[in-house]
Amino acid sequence: MNRKKLQKLTDSLTKNCKHFSKFEVKCLINHFYNLVGEVTERQGMIIGLDRNAFRNILHMTFGMTDDMIMDRVFRGFDKDNDGCISVTEWVYGLSVFLRGTLEEKMKYCFEVFDLNGDGFISKEEMFHMLKNSLLKQPSEEDPDEGIKDLVEITLKKMDHDHDGKLSFADYEQAVREETLLLEAFGPCLPDPKSQKEFEAQVFKDPNEFNEV
Amino acid sequence: MGVALTRSAQWTAAGHGAKTLEVTPLNEAIVKEIILFVESFIYKYPQEANYVFVEPLEWKTNLDPSAFGSGYAVSGTTVKSEEVDKNGEPLLYLSVPQIKIRSFGQLSRMLYFAKNMKLKEAQACIEANENPVAKILGFDYNIINEKNGNSFVSSILDKITKDDGPEIEIKMKIALQLKQLDLHLLNHSLKHISLEIRLNPGTVKNDIELLKRFSGKGEQTVLESIEYTSDYEFSNGCRAPPWRQIKGEICYLLVKPHDAEILCVTCSKEGVFLNGGKTDDEGQINYERKGEIYKDLVTLLKEKSAIFSENMSKQEVKFSEQPQKDQPNEAPKEEVAITHKASIASRKSSQEKNRINLGRSQLTKRLEPSLNWRTSVSSKDRNTLRDTQAEKHGGKLEKSRSSLSPGRAQLIRKSIEKIEEIISDSSSESEEDEEQPDHRQETNADLPSEYWQIQKLVKYLKGGNQTATVIALCSMKDFNLAQETCQLAIRDVGGLEVLINLLETDEVKCKIGSLKILKEISHNPQIRRNIVDLGGLPVMVNILDSPHKSLKCLAAETIANVAKFRRARQVVRHHGGITKLVALLDCGKHSAEPAQSSLYETRDVEVARCGALALWSCSKSYANKEAIRKAGGIPLLARLLKTSHENMLIPVVGTLQECASEENYRAAIKAERIIENLVKNLNSENEQLQEHCAMAIYQCAEDEETRDLVRLHGGLKPLASLLNNTDNKERLAAVTGAIWKCSISKENVTKFREYKAIETLVGLLTDQPEEVLVNVVGALGECCQEHENRVVIRKCGGIQPLVNLLVGINQALLVNVTKAVGACAVEPESMMIIDRLDGVRLLWSLLKNPHPDVKASAAWALCPCIQNAKDAGEMVRSFVGGLELVVNLLKSDNKEVLASVCAVITNIAKDQENLAVITDHGVVPLLSKLANTNNDKLRRHLAETISRCCMWGRNRVAFGEHKAVAPLVRYLKSNDTNVHRATAQALYQLSEDADNCITMHENGAVKLLLDMVGSPDEELQEAAAGCISNIRRLALAIEKARYS
After folding, report:
1. Helix, strand or coil for residue B487?
2. Is A61 on the interface with B (CB under 8 A)?
3. Does the keyword Ribosomal protein apply (chain A) (predicted)?
4. Average pLDDT by consecutive 10-residue portion of chain B (1044 residues)?
5. How much helix, strand and coil, in percent to the nearest 5, is found in chain A?
């Protein structure tokens, strides 16, 4: 990519993304191209991170393990649903992922948890997300009983309108009461430690960047 | 010698390098006997004295080479004896500091040179040569010696027959001598040991249980606390670990007296002594003995704590009085026993939340053997309080109690309440553990549904991943955690362990969730103890270092809740928690925090607030106050005090108030200009804040400069106006306390008068709790030092309530009331009122109060009363036995009491008739006995009394006969002019008797008196001159007699 284009991209992204400084955006773009690798630019070819590459990043850098959640995070980043995260999507995504306000993060998390995208987190979806969260006890007759119970507990806690599923309003109210419930159905945001490491790694030495 | 040394001598514990002999009377006696033996050896057995030891006795000596005289070659730092062995080696060789000696002859000579260091040298020798017999005679002798003492002689004889020779013969003789010495030493030490009283676990336990019941906060108790270091009791009744039981140790105690640091005490069979205290947080005890051995716990504590011995003597009085009192009440007592049983039965059937009660009653049951009247009374109380079934017996119980005098009944009830508190407090842990299982079984049926739900959640906590854990935690938080059933449910299903475990993980969210729950349930005292027992505090202290502010906050808040009892506070300190908490206060310094703070973050101010909250809890322990100061907490607290958030100010001021009990803090508070802010916050709207500010001022105003600062910053007015709001008693107590301390300064009193505070204070003399009354009366006592205020108090009818308070039992209150009444009595008009209200009689009866402070204060108050009463002589005589009581108080050993009683006697003696009566009661010898004192206050009043008492009969002569004159002359060398004046007057009176003049002259009074004549004080001049003239006149008369 030539210098002029890069400059333009940086400027536009900086303008639209209030959580990052210009320098940080530059760093992120640079990091993105490092991750994509030396794929030479060709017309009509989309440059970006595919699902596997992105999941790899989530796993290695942010310590996420749950395949389903990682899939959902990918979808959260991939706004245009083309199966590939472009540089714009990368910067926008990370802006919420790393620096988002509570509102932004709630919206993002809800989207992640709403597996079928119908605007509600249903019991089935919850069950699906929580099914690996308890140690299976061989003594129990129904191994899923614990999970079902956990779902009931969650509903009791969060379903304020008692319709048996979580709307965004339910979710928002519950999170505002108790921030810990933001990632109620699985970690979909970086934990503070890996976030720090990532930022330290990416936003380093400005001189090095200038030479690129 | 070998046996005696290994068995009888008391060696300190090994493991500290070389063994050393402990300094005990027994050891000293053994060493002395050995010295005696060695010293006499050279004379008794000159031949054997030349025998050369197989190996030299070698030790480090303190002897100087120059100490050695003839027969020794001294060169610099070495000394060689001229006596040598066959090989020409010296028998004594000293090369500083090592000394080697190879014969008894040299040994006894060395002891001769050592002179007064004998004991030390001998001890060093014994300590350095673990097996002296083997060194002297060779190893084979020692083995016989050790193995079988009885066959020793026969085996020696065997040897003699086997190999003959002069050398061997001498060796045998020495061996026999040593054997004899050994026997002698054993017998000797036996005598010593038999003098010591052997304690056994039973008696020790009884002692401790008894003391426990008289411990707690407050004046009436003997100790603040007494507890075992270990909860585990072995089947033999000992609590010491087995390897210490071998040494005869029974148990270790932590005793906190009212007036001293915590004492770490070892109870052993030999007696009771202080040990080295707890060495580190693991609870390891330094077993080394650190003080004398006392015959029992009570003797040791009497020695270490004045308040203990005083209160103990009171308790003893009560003990001895009570059994007779209870005799006629046999019948009701039996009934009590029945109802007691019934109550247990009924409780079992109802099985409500009576776990604690059950525990308590079991405790009392267990104590039964050592119980006397006291528990019977306490169980009465408990039954009447708790038992509905026993209500019909209530009337009788009431009656039996009302047979006691009202004052005492109240006192007893109080102490019982206290005792109960302590029992519940100190024993809760062990009690709960015992109760737990059967509680679960018997109550399965009617457990609340919360119990099961919580149990389920805890199961998910245990078996869930991070996500499930967070959900379970959030759900658990929705229970009413302020409710005890939920708190205990969490504990009973093993939730506490899991919650504390979560704190050790890396999961921030889990830690936050767990702390949020712990914070809530730690309001429960039992849970607090459980948290500490499970080691929760060190983990929380570590979290204080976390980079997450909200975590820090929650941890600090939880610590604030948990650290409500002493052991917890200690744990916080031992794990460096205080330093970390103080660091939390340092907010605002890192203001350059990232703009986009993480979701779970809170503000710096909040962190500081939580830190202050935790410090407030911790600051209730003395050592923590020190730690806070050392960690630099005071400037930080001072800075936080400048903020205007009430939430912040309350813990900050609370901490300061708690710490201001220490001198160091008061100085720092002054230096940091904290008073100004305290005063400012008195004007706050928040009652709690006002209370703590007033309390802090109360603590700090002991210092004069601080009192002035309070005035200069305008703090007196808000204090005075806060007096008008009497609903909040805690605040009222704090405010009146601050006024009391502030009114020690005259200028402040003037201000208070301006603000009409004195009238308000008088209004507070009735219908207030004792804590308030103490302070109100104290303040009035200070105000009364000025005439105008006395008038004010009289005019608004303050004297009547003051006199009424003279019948109370609160010691602090009585001290203040007597002072105030005494100050009022200076005014003749007020005195009339006091007299009419029979106040003098009440004061007089306070002379019988067991507490010396009350006695002294009452006596001081009596002085102006006698001075200003009309027809004082008649009034004093009207108190039956009053004069005898006063005279007998001269036998007290409290200097303040003595001085005050002297002052009273001075006033009494103004009436000739009374003077005659007290002379008959033997006032002269008692006063004379006191004459040898260094206390200037006592000297002054004593001299005044003596001069006054000289006015009757042959008292002058009697003082001379009881040798009071010579010490009086020495008073003239004191630096106090008041003492000079009183003494000169006394001497003047005494000098009317010729013999006294001679004594004075012999003791060099004339020169001293001549100096006094030059004093600017006219009374002193006159008295000194009068005395000199008496002495001179006698001299002239003698001369005249001689020449005519």
Report:
1. helix
2. no
3. no
4. 58 50 72 82 79 83 78 80 79 82 83 80 80 75 48 52 64 80 77 63 80 75 80 80 80 82 82 76 72 79 78 61 44 44 45 41 39 39 41 40 42 43 35 37 62 88 87 89 87 90 89 92 91 92 88 92 90 91 75 46 80 90 88 87 82 88 83 84 86 89 86 88 85 90 89 87 86 90 87 88 88 90 88 88 89 91 88 85 89 91 91 89 89 89 91 87 88 88 90 87 87 87 90 89 85
5. 60, 5, 35
C-alpha to C-alpha distance for B121 and B978, rounded to whole angstroms: 53
- The nearest CA of chain B is from the CA of A185 a distance in Å of 6
Query: Which one-letter amino acid corresponds to residue B466?
Result: Q
> Residue B18 half-sphere exposure, CB side, CA atoms within 13 Å?
12
Residues B832, B814: Cα–Cα separation, whole Å: 21
Does B599 contact A157 at a Cβ distance shorter than 8 Å? no
**Shortest CA distance from A106: residue in chain B:** B599
Contacts of B250 (CB under 8 A, 6+ apart): B199, B200, B201, B204, B237, B238, B239, B240, B267, B268, B269
Of B478, B702, B726, B863, nearest in space to A177 by CA: B478
φ and ψ at residue A120, rounded to 5 degrees? -130, 150
pTM above 0.80, yes or no: no
User: Could you count the other beta carbons within 10 Å of the beta carbon of residue B160?
Assistant: 14
Nearest Cα neighbor of A73 from A115, A19, A24, A13 is: A115
- Give SS3 for B464: strand
Chain B contacts in chain A segment 147-206 (CB below 8 A): 149-150, 153-154, 156-157, 178-187, 191-193
Please give the single-letter amino acid code of residue B650.
I
Contacts of B598 in chain A (CB under 8 A): 192
Pick the residue of A129, A150, A188 with the most B CBs within 10 A to test the interface with B by mutation.
A150
> Does B477 touch chain A if contact means CB atoms closer than 8 Å?
yes
Q: Which two tokens stand for residue B248?
A: 């005869």
Assign 3-state DSSP to chain B and report helix, strand, coil percentages, each to 5. 70, 5, 25
- For residue B467, the chain A residues in CB contact (below 8 A) are 129-130, 133, 183-187
Q: Enumerate the β-bridge partners of residue A166.
A: A121
Neighboring chain A residues of B457 at a CB cutoff of 8 Å: 153
**CB of A35 less than 8 A from some CB of B:** no
| Positive/negative CA dihedral, B465, B486, B355, B617 | positive
Give the nearest partner residue to A180 out of B460, B512, B547, using CB atoms: B512
Q: Which of A105, A130, A179 has the CB atom closest to B468's CB atom?
A: A130
Per residue in B37-68, pLDDT tens?
888 887 778 777 888 888 888 888 887 777 77
Q: Do B471 and A179 touch (CB under 8 A)?
A: no
Question: What span, in angstroms and rounded, lies between the C-alpha atoms of B787 and B372?
Answer: 53
State the smallest CA–CA distance between residue B646 and chain A in angstroms: 24
**Given an 8 Å threshold on Cβ–Cβ distance, is B598 in contact with A192?**
yes
Nearest CA distance, A102 vs chain B (angstrom): 7
Q: How far is B479 from chain A (nearest CA, A)?
A: 11
Peptide bond into B97 cis (omega under 30): yes
Model ipTM value: 0.90
pLDDT digits (tens, 9 = 90+) for A68-97: 888 889 988 888 888 888 888 888 888 888
Pick A178's closest partner by Cβ from B474, B506, B547. B474
**Does residue B595 sit at the A interface (CB-CB below 8 Å)?**
no
Pair A184, A154: CB distance under 8 Å: yes
Instruction: Provide the CB-side half-sphere exposure for B705 (13 A, CA).
Output: 8
Which value, to the nearest 10 degrees, does the dihedral of the CA atoms of residues B95, B97, B100, B103 take? Answer: 110
